[in-house]
Design brief:
By secondary structure, the chain is mostly helical. A two-stranded antiparallel ribbon has the order 1-2. α2 packs antiparallel against α3.
Length: 83
């Protein structure tokens, strides 16, 4: 595990540990649930291949692949932001 201490800020966990260098950085989508729900049909259609890769990775890791599947998760986020 990390040697850095996590901080709590108004019930939110802020993890100060930097991501490994092999995981590409990506900006968050920056939308609340309402716009994401209304665009979900279009996001799902356009990003199906990336979502399938992510779900396959999670399935192969038996649901415990948070770090192992982060690269695929970032691809899904990047695709959703492009819609």
């Amino acid at each position: 595990m990390s040697t850095r201490q996590s901080r709590f800020s108004q019930q939110v966990l802020l993890d100060t540990t930097p991501l490994p260098s092999n995981i590409p950085p990506v900006k968050e989508v920056g939308a609340s649930s309402a716009p994401l729900m209304s665009a979900s049909f279009f996001i799902g259609a356009r990003c199906k291949a990336f979502g399938d890769d992510y779900m396959k990775c999670k399935e192969e890791a038996f649901g415990k692949g948070e770090v192992e599947c982060m690269r695929e998760g970032r691809k899904v986020t990047r695709c959703a932001a492009s819609v």
